[in-house]
Amino acid sequence: MGGEGEGRLFETRVRSGRTWYKLYAASVCGGVCLTWVYRATNIPEIGENGRWAWMGMLVAELCFGFYWVLTQSFRWCPIYHRTFKERLSQKYGNELPPVDIFVCTADPTIEPPVLVMNTVLSVMAYDYPPEKLSIYVSDDGASELTFCALLEATDFVRHWISFCKRFNVEPRSPSAYFSSPELHDLRYASELDRIKEMYYAMEDRIKVATNFDRVASGVNNQHKGFSEWNSQITPGNHQAIVQILIDGRDQNATDMEGNTLPTLVYLSREKRPQYPHNFKAGALNALIRVSSEISNSPVILNVDCDMYSNSSESVKNAMCFFLDEQSGQQIGYVQFPQNFNNLDKNNIYGDYISIINEVEMAGLGDSMYLGTGCFHRRESLCGHKYSEHCRMLRDTWNQVKMRKPEESTSFLEERARDLASCTYEQNTNWGKDIGIKYGCLVEDVVTGLSIQMNGWRSIYYNPSRKGFLGISPTTLSQLLVQHKRWSEGLFQTFLSKYCPFLYGYGKIELRLQMSYATYMLWAPMSLPTLYYVTIPSLCLLKGIPLYPRISSSWFPVFVYVIIGTQAYSLGEALWCQQSFRSWWNMQRMRLMRRTCSYFFSLLDTTMQSLGLGKSSFDITAKIADHEALERLKKGVMEFGSSSPMFSVLAAIAMLNLLCLVASVIMAVVREGFKDQLALQFLLCGMLVMLNLPIYHGMFLRKDRGRLPTFLALESCLIAALACLLSLY
Fold it and tell me: 213 — alpha (psi -120 to 50), left (phi > 0) or beta?
């Protein structure tokens, strides 16, 4: 798409050195095919021990091989993008298109108002003409506390923006900047002390109000917006609330340097129990409509409330794609990576986001829409199809409906309320052909796929300085629940009319279809994984070989596939600047996700298909108690609240431990070592090592983050029963 020609604002290049990778991938593919041949030609005879176990291994390995082929869509021909912001500045100066920024929050108890406020301040301080920025905060919880926090920010932002631009600080989230371990420039130490004092005083006021769950007396007289709240309002039953807290047209709305402030709008769309609200998708669609009435910018950025801006140049980076004269008119959205600022150094929860960012998504060039950190062309988000006659963005923003000076804020607020009513979408195409799609837990992925189906191109841009930083789950329970929701929604999408192989056939590249399927098939891949972590260990206990003996000519084939894939996985992690221990934790968490999150999501999807259940949208908590955070810093796994998923984890861990111990005892005492069981010993031993934190949490820990005692007893009983049944 892009090149280095004169005037180009970005370039796209294929990564070098892929010949060696293609040779490696071809050799692994050959090895995988040979393992299938071995399985198919060595099936035990009818009535022979292990026949059904062997056939199950064949099916599981067919699934693993097919899935490995899908993952090559990311790695076969990876590309990367580079922007030229200096050319953008030379060509356009401050004559850049306006941008609407959406910040979404839903529950002040798990998404604290201070967190929301910091994200808002970070995007208000972008290195971009402030009169071109309009920030919209969607509060789906209709929280007076969130409104109060934003009102507090309207005064502080005057000082904060001036400070950021005067001293060019990064990041521009106050909380993140003040807590940065890096030494701040001593040349502006006095200014820093002053702004820190102002911020912490404001933060204390907000936290006091949050702790008491009410706004301090007298504060509600400071703005007319507080009159919207009364004792009858609940998060699920309230009128539409629209308040323009900072009006960019107001000549008095300036920072300490006299520069215009960005527009800031608070929105809580109307909710009534009898009308579906469609969760985050409904909130975003209300924002699209409300923003079209107030600012109607041709570019929209949406971020989650915990995903603050870590780079002040993200908007300019995105504009390099949209404003490129050769390819820009076809780009529908630019997706920035999701990154997190609270991962411990050893990555105890095995967050593989670095692999996704540096290898998978980056390798495609095109991108799924991930729901946050994404810049959209408004017309693509509103369902318009791409054609060669689409105007360049620079022509589009000249046609943007501008607010007339005589239109008062109260007039705009009143018109916007109508657009945020709970009945507005009735008998319309909102949620179908217009805006964010409804009816799925992963509305973002479906929306991105639909935009691509309309002919728009997408960009995955991974800059050297991370564009956005958020908060990852701090307990194992939160992580497993989050992945359950994702995998459930993705698998539902695969089974729907939006299946990429059907919906995308002939319209998007096969490589892009395969990449979507890689994530959408998380849930069914739980079954071969569960089989592989239980049956070989039980067969080991009974002395039934499922792999070739060491002296067999087939043995090196299995060894090569195992070592080759794992060695490349390790090399990939090291290339992404992860440590060996971090890679090991990734393997552990991949196992836990597949055997728990993905398995339960598969069960739920099956139940829903039978009409025995329905989907739910669970918000991941953004806060953790002090003791849990201390354990996280020490690299100790926090199991959090009790969960049925832990029963599966514990049972699998105990089953493999019992099988390994019993097999070793039998080998030493009774039978001696059988070389045809070597790979099963290795597999069982690796599973035991991966599950060491589970044993530690069940038997050795005494803190509140351990696994419950009853779970240890339950898992031991289940594992012992499974072992006994396998022997008879």
Answer: left
Is 213 annotated as belonging to a binding site?
Answer: no
User: Within 10 Å of residue 372's Cβ, how many Cβ atoms?
Assistant: 22
Q: What is the mean pLDDT of residues 24-33?
A: 96
Q: What is the pTM of this model?
A: 0.92
| CA–CA gap between residue 696 and residue 15 (Å, rounded) | 43
Contacts of 499 (CB under 8 A, 6+ apart): 493, 520
Buried b (16+ CB within 10 A) or exposed e, 485-524: bbbbbbbbbbeeebbbeebbeeebeebbbbbbbbbbbbbb
* Set 140, 255, 306, 344: catalytic member: 140
- Cα–Cα distances in angstroms (integers) from residue 285 to residues 290, 359, 703, in the given order: 9, 32, 45
* Active-site entry in 139, 351, 366, 444: 444
Instruction: Kindly tell me the burial class for residue 544, based on how many C-beta atoms sit within 10 Å of its own C-beta (0-12, 13-18, 19 or more).
Output: buried
Q: Are 468 and 303 within 8 A, CB to CB?
A: yes
Burial of 210 (0-12, 13-18, 19+ CB in 10 A): buried
Cα separation, 610 vs 234, whole angstroms: 34
Q: Region 461-472: what's the mean pLDDT?
A: 92
* Tokens encoding 182: 């890096």
Helix, strand, or coil (residue 496): coil
Instruction: Assess contact for 478 and 620: CB atoms under 8 A.
Output: yes
Q: How far apart are CA 174 and CA 196, in angstroms?
A: 8
* Residue 351 appears among annotated catalytic residues: no
Structure confidence at residue 444 (pLDDT): 94
| Cβ neighbours around 13 below 10 Å, total | 14
Rg of the Cα atoms in the chain: 28
Dist CA 160 CA 195 (whole Å): 7
- pLDDT of residue 179 exceeding 70, the answer is yes
Structure confidence at residue 626 as a pLDDT band (50, 70, 90): low
Residue 688: alpha-carbon gap to chain centroid: 29
Q: Is 111 annotated as a binding residue?
A: yes
How far, in Å, CA of 220 to CA of 593, rounded?
A: 46
Alpha-carbon gap, residue 191 to 164, rounded angstroms: 11
Phi and psi angles of residue 626, each rounded to the nearest 5 degrees, phi first: -60, -45
Cα torsion for 672, 675, 681, 683, to the nearest 10°? 180
DSSP per-residue letters across 64-77: HHHHHHHHHHHHSS
140 marked among binding-site residues: yes
Under 8 Å between Cβ of 696 and 635:
no
How much is the average pLDDT of 165-192?
Answer: 84
How far apart, in whole angstroms, are the C-alpha atoms of residue 149 and residue 612? 42
Q: How far apart are the first and last CA of the chain?
A: 63
Within its chain, how far is the Cα of 359 from the centroid?
Answer: 15
Mean pLDDT, residues 183-195 taken together: 79
- Mean pLDDT of all residues in 72-95: 90
CA dihedral of 514, 516, 518, 519, whole degrees rounded to 10: 180
- What residues form DSSP beta bridges with 266? 137, 243
Q: Is the distance from CB of 643 to CB of 480 less than 8 angstroms?
A: yes
Q: Alpha-carbon distance 566 to 583, whole Å? A: 10
DSSP code per residue over 322-352 = HT-TTTGGGEEEEEPPP-BS---TT-TT---
Active site residue 247: no
* 224 annotated among ligand-binding-site residues: no
CB atoms within 10 A of CB 669: 8
Q: Which residue in 625, 472, 622, 468 sits closest to 119, CA to CA? A: 468
Distance CA 707, CA 597 (A): 17
